[in-house]
Request: fold
Amino acid sequence: MVSLQRDEGLPGAQAAQERVTVIEASSGWSALRLGELWAYRELLLFLAWRDVSVRYKQTLLGAAWAILQPLLSMIVFTLIFGNFAGLPSDNVPYPVLTYTALLPWQYFATAMSNASNSLVGSANLLTKVYFPRLVIPVAAVLPAAVDFVIAFVILLVMMLIYGITPTWNVLWLPVFMLLAVVTALGVSLWLSALNVQYRDVRYAVPFLVQFWMYASPVAYSSSIIPERWRALYGLNPMTGVIEGFRWALLGTDTAPGVFTLISAGIAVLILVSGAFYFTHMEKTFADVV
Amino acid sequence: MSDVAIEVTGLGKRYRIGGPQERYKRFTETVMHTLSAPVRRLRRIGQPPPPEEMSWALRDVSFEVGQGEVVGIIGRNGAGKSTLLKIISRITEPTEGRVRLRGRVGSLLEVGTGFHPELTGRENIYLNGAILGMTRAEIERKFDEIVDFAEIEKFIDTPVKRYSSGMYVRLAFAVAAHLEPEILLVDEVLAVGDAAFQKKCLGKMGDVAGEGRTVLFVSHNMGAIQSLTRRTLVIDRGRLVADTDTATAVQQYLSTRNQPTEAHAIRSRHEAFRVDALRFNYDLLESGFNRPLTFEIDVTADRPLHEVSVALSAVNSLGARLLTSERTLPRLPAGKSRLQVTIADHRLPPGNYNTIVGILIGGVTAVYEENVLPFELSDVDVDNAFIVKRRDRIGAFIPAQIRVLEPTASLDEKKWLP
Reply:
């Protein structure tokens, strides 16, 4: 447990002569020390920026991958679920229905996959330099947002082509995006910390992403879910996010309601519990990783 | 009280080292063991690891460092020096005891931490600076100075994966050298780069020390320790065994080091000959350049053996065999014997070496093992000056052959042959 007395250690603050740091063994659960995370915000942004700038280095197609991934998935889902299976599309062209869902989903899946491996991937940093360990997974969920923005442009083009005009509901979009970020970060805090101890996580994450996608209305509309399962279905925070996106952008009748609140509550619960679990485990990271 | 920068009290760190390893004879057993491992592990979740799997890397360490003091830390590999620095840099938590630090702490446990090969030199300066705890404004202010120090102006916008390893290290050190904390913790980072750059780094470290910064400095380079510090801590097997002036501490370090290191389990292919132990005898090693090295080999012969040749080679840290010394015993009596092998005039410079041992009996190889016994020759000695003044200029001294050719003679190859 490290406690900073006097000024909350801003790195580089001039003449912090009086700052006293006490390092002792800690036991039990510790506080989150979000102030310290704030003090290291520059490092956080640098790490996120690094991941963004090296992301498509030495690739042929570069950032086009950010568009291709959801676009190809969209084609597959439209063919299989829209055409062959003939699932309902809530009066929206099927490609737009799934593409709208794929935007937050791809963000969530990419952010979660990257962030859950982030601590193990940064082992050299963990064992050589001190900084609040939360910086690493937090920085790792940010870069996927760049792909999100690029892919979003394509959605606007598609909406133009299909003649869909967004309503004022679109102002709610940042709220749903925030919900996606909170969910991704919460899950990542759990998984990245667990991954340090149990590398099983690395093998489990691809399956988790796959199962989770089918448990979310990505490839289909949640209107096909029977009424009695809706409550259980709503426990999945990504359901709230995706139906929120569709409502805000396409005007489907999935207006946010009780289930959205449940989704949000679950997301916050995952985030807070994840943060405490992470802080509890972080003192052992350098020794175990 | 306020002039104490680092106060360490009763510090201890216990590590989990893992249980005793079982040996497997067959492939199938290895597979079965691997498959059953999850069951064993799941059973133990939540239970504290058995005590035999725990080991203290550091115990009962207490000391104080005043503001502006430069203190060296020396000790053998694995003595706990790095663990100590890691605790003070807050990378790992102590198991017991406490540390009080007054001022901003910067630690340099490695240069180039977080460098990304795909990023340019410029980008890596910002990234690495941020990782080491510098603010953006601070890095901007020192940017030119860093580039200057690293001597890489032309390549500043080239991805560092295209750098030579020398350039890479120079850039990495340059960023680190411009860190300006009140307390600086340095672990062996000077052992990088070419000789000229190392000298420059030592100079920079000297400047840091001169600026009234508090420095804790771990090194194996006794020369650097002696030129940079006046006080030194000696750590041996996790304990602080000396906290005194550097000259005394260095002497004490040499004495803690002077336990013979032994190698066992050296395989013999001869049915009547075994090697029980191979030892480097530090007690007989006088400090100084080119002093005789003494190895001891404990052997057992089931019957008297003839023509026993013993060869020892010294290999440097790059794997180059620098020296091979060989002698044949006409006769080895039956029973246990200790062979004392002395190698004089080896001319090995200070450094870390490893040993290759080969034994031929009657012309047939009985023993051949590489890298069986590391040993260290230190540069801390009375005739350091002698090495610098004479040996560095002439290196190893070997008489040359000179022939006077006829002024008109062509450089016929045969004339060069003796």
Observations:
- Residues 31-288 of chain A form one domain.
- The interface with chain B takes residues 1-2, 9, 11-13, 16-26, 42-43, 46-47, 50, 53-54, 57-58, 124-131, 283-284, 286-287 of chain A (CB under 8 Å).
- Residues 66 and 186 of chain A are 23 Å apart (CA to CA).
- The longest strand of chain A covers residues 20-24.
